Give the backbone structure.
Amino acid sequence: VIYERRASPLHAARATVAGAWSVVLVFATLAFEHPLVLAALFLAVALGAVGAGVGRRVARMLRFALPFAVLITLVNVFVVREGLTVIFRVGEVPPFGQVDLTLESLVYGAILGVRALIMLLAAALFSATVNPDELLRVFRRISFRSALTAALAVRLVPVLQRDGRRLAEARRLRVDEPSRVAALRAVVAGSLDRAGDVAATLELRGYRTVAPRAASGRERWSRHDVAFAASALAVALLTVGAHLVDAGVMTAYPSLDVPVGRGRARARRGAGRRRPAAVLRSPGGRAMSEPILAFEGVTYTYPGAASPALDDVSFALPAGEFCVVAGLSASGKSTVARAAAGLVPHFHGGRFGGRVTTGGLDTREHGVADLAAVAGTLLQDPETQVVLNTVRAELAFPLENRGHAPAAVARGVEEVALALGIADLLDRPTHELSGGELQRVALGAALAGRPRLVILDEPTSQLDPVAGDELIWLLRRLNEEWGTSVLLVEHRLERCLAAADRVLAFDAGRLACDAPPREFLGWAADAAPALQTPGARLFARAGLRPPPSGVKDARATLRAHGLLDPRPAIEPGGGLTPATDPGKGLTLSAPLAAARPARRRRFAGARGPRRLARASGWPDRPARRRPDPAAGRARRAHGPQRRRQVDAAAPPGRAADAEPRLDHRCRAGRAAAPAPRATTCCTRPWGRRRPPPHARPPASPSTRIVTRATCRAARSSASRSRSSSAPATRAPSRRSSASTSPRAAWTAAPRATSPTACAPCRRRQRRARRHARPRVRRRLRRPRRPAGRRAPDRRRPTADVLTGGWYFATETARIVEGALLPEEGAALLKSRLTLEVPAP
Amino acid sequence: VTWQIASFAVLFAALAAGFGWYERTHPSAKVLALVRTLAALAAWAAWPSRRCRTSSRRS
């Protein structure tokens, strides 16, 4: 049972009061044995749960608690040999002697079981209604590290549950289905692997800099606080009073006489609490000309690596500059970001030479937490960078670590939430957020201290196109309006070059190019074609110069060349004529209008019987019967939160290629809702019992690698892949960058062999409980939702989606409407060059 | 002293010793993350229902 904020008095009460109310019920259960008192306590827990709107969730605990209570009852009967009323005589059992089962021991066992049951239900009520972050923040004043560890662990439990589900799905999609032990081992290994990233995040958030300062002001008690505190106090007083006068005592065994001493627990206050002596203040008032980041002959080798990741790198980043770091995989981009943040060498170890100065602080002399005060860092995996349970606690964490006063923390949290557009997420649990929301929250935590430098390592790797663009332009706004320097490591250069002032290109650990975006593109055309943006490639193929740094730049250049009219008047046959695609209402150029039907014919010709239809539809997460208000608003705005990749259809022969794209587009089309998992279908050829390999890896990069055998397969496949030669020497793991890990996972998932047909959820049906199978079949046959709820471009061919829409259009399509690839755009531009365009 | 009280005393003594050591030794971020992971794994392993759910209760 996990905490979710709901509109109830118990949720509205402060965490300490709500927690005390549940704890008092537990202690009262421990203190009383009388069945009537226990029944009253059970009623109190049940009413509390129903009143808080978590009745069903607490009742779910009964499934575990009832067998546990029965077990206690039975154990007590067999273990305790007190009582006078023998109901069964077992006989002589060496070495216990004569064993008799008595009615008294059965009754007392039942009382023990009921007490255990009430305590478990009260614990479930506690965890469902008490905000763990708020409660542990109070305890952090007493025992900082233990409370922080508990808060971190609470955050990890739902993540582990999700990983377990995803790995179970991934396991079923493998040809040689690994055992459950392998999946379990993968969960454990993944979480331990993730611990390293979490530790890095903790240091980046200022852990160990300053212990949280005691609150200077007291918050006023609300009426809910007063009511529940009075209730808890009354129950506690009644419990103590009844205990003093021996009321509510039930004597199960006639001859039982239990001397109970009253101990006095002493709270250990302040044990081991240490506060760092000084608060690190960011050095302010520096001249803008002073570099905010400087690398001087930096050479760095990771522990155990043969070759250096950075080789004699020198550059200086002036304050207020927006700098993009580019390069192929394993070229040292991420190492530059980690060296700037101080993670290299403090966190990773290895051999470090040269000097890095961040915000005037030498990274050799200052730790990561010190550097975090001047440089906010955002790494590529949002899952490991959000370490607490609610968004508000997450944003407050770095400020509290730096010793800000509570009022300043509250103000900083509100400000950064409003600035990033996540104010509506503040009270949401972090395990419910989608990847894009998590990334924005992590960025908010990095920006909460208003650092002078923001370091980002592929922050858009798990975002949909629009969310990625929004993030880039948010950074640009910070850069322009607040003078925040930005060091952005990114391999999707078409997203960020237009916003950048400067590009650093790395090759095999060396700085290969340091130039403004246009000059960089000119360099890339000759020296590193793989780093060219689609727009630059389009221009190069069309023979146009200079290469554009963005869509606006490219369109301006095309207009200057007369190749892009706002609404080209094109006459048919020799001349050019306006051609409008009735499906989209977009005006297309004539050559593309001529080409488009051919593409559609090709699709239509291959259509035939669908081999992949209704690719999903399985509910892998139970419904929340009572959604909280925030989830309800999101659901009304964006539809149900699950299973929106349903109804992807693909013709024979194109299933493996077309389906994941459609799936991805459909999923990202609802960006505001949590991304559904994409691994709920299995394929198999007709007539074969064993399903063939499926072409789709699981949705989350963190759960793609199931077994070591999969790792080996990924490595061998990656070594054969032309674009994965560099990382082929490494085992794919979470340490792989965002660009190498998915590729390795793709190669690890064997492609479907021909001819493959799709039997949606057949294996799920087979695995389903027998009584559930008819429901499953009915569910799969049922239309999922009205047509009006579908994304508008869900059933269109992929090319149409990528060329026609605002949302998913590629950079080439944005420059030259309708063209998908740079080659198509170049051909189109060349054809326009040869056509005679009439003067307007 | 019964064996129940003795076992609880041993348990609480071990917990108190661990707590004291943990608070006094200033664990690094790596140790903290490791302890967090182990604690969460223990909680996850002890959690009652981790099976794939197969019922279709939602429309």
